[in-house]
């Protein structure tokens, strides 16, 4: 039996479709992060980017996201290990670090909903930034499943 593409190829060798299929749809990379001024530690919140659909954990306008959100980061094989806020459960990060994908990852399970069923996504747990009052950020600090490891 042949190995899956993510075990046979480096991130740089993957086709665009293979690269895009690595995204498990957890939505964790699309949440607002806060930086503790004293320690520099990044803290996750339950507030999402205005383009994240909180019920599907997918970008509402993925191909044009930079027009609305100019600071949206495009992940590449070159920058994946340089971005400190990439979720610990992220397939891009796991592969870059030579680790295995979790069995709840849709490529492993064969089920596109497995990330949600495993409770590893932000599905239905976030407030869109357009609905946030812009104050009381501290009350929105959370630790997402799989991120405190």
Radius of gyration: 16 Å
Q: Can you count the helices?
A: 6
The biggest sheet amounts to: 4 strands, mixed
Helical percent range? 10-25%
Number of E-state strands: 6
| Percent in strands | 5-15%
Q: Look at the structure and give the mean pLDDT.
A: 93
What order do the SSEs take from the amino end to the carboxyl end, as H and E?
Answer: HHEEEEHHHHEE
Structural class, from secondary structure content? alpha+beta
Low-confidence stretches: none
Basic shape = globular
Distance between the termini: 33 Å
Task: Estimate nothing, just give the exact number of structural domains.
Answer: 1
What features would you describe in this structure?
By secondary structure, this protein is an alpha+beta fold. Helix content is 19%, strand content 13%. Strands 1, 2, 5 and 6 form a four-stranded mixed sheet that branches. The longest helix is centred in the N-terminal third of the chain and has 6 residues, at 16-21. The protein is globular. The model has no long low-confidence stretch (mean pLDDT 93).
Topology summary:
Layout lengths: L4 H4 L7 H6 L9 E5 L6 E7 L3 E2 L4 E2 L5 H4 L22 H6 L9 H4 L4 H4 L9 E2 L12 E2 L7
Parallel strand pairs: 2-5
Antiparallel strand pairs: 1-2, 2-6, 3-4
